[in-house]
Amino acid sequence: MSLVRRSSVFDPFADFLDPFDGVFRSLVPSITSSDRDTTAFANARIDWKETPEAHVIKADIPGVKKEEVKVEVEDGNVLVISGERSKEKEDKNDKWHRVERSSGKFMRRFRLPENAKVDEVKAGLENGVLTVTVPKAEVKRPEVKSIQISG
């Protein structure tokens, strides 16, 4: 677990222990950009919940159009969410007082469980939140056959 700030971008929760720190790190490629603010966007915040019917993954990606986002399943059960938010066009006559919004590429990968129906994945983007729904297959319970005891 880590208490180290990873970016110059203010994060009110940065000092909290992250129980999942490093869990998915091996699945996420390292970021080579020297722009620390881009790193904050590249690590888009994700929520993953499981309901009785599906796995629901939500990603905060404000300012990104649906044409700039890709949701794919690779290697049979790895969900990949990727995209890019472009920098705002700068006019030479503009005088910037503060630049806090980040831009750049992002990619997150998640290994889906065996009960995921990867052929039925659906995604929607509304108000800067990408929602990916992965339906779950019904778990077949083994048939139990009673054996009569003789004697």
From TrEMBL:
Pfam families reported in the protein's UniProt record: HSP20
Gene3D superfamilies named among the record's database cross-references: 2.60.40.790
Superkingdom of origin organism: Eukaryota
The UniProt record lists the keyword Nuclease: no
SUPFAM superfamilies: HSP20-like chaperones (SSF49764)
Ranges of residues in domain SHSP: 37-151
Name of the featured protein: SHSP domain-containing protein
Organism the protein comes from: Eleusine coracana subsp. coracana
Higher taxonomy: Eukaryota, Viridiplantae, Streptophyta, Embryophyta, Tracheophyta
This protein's encoding gene: ga23559
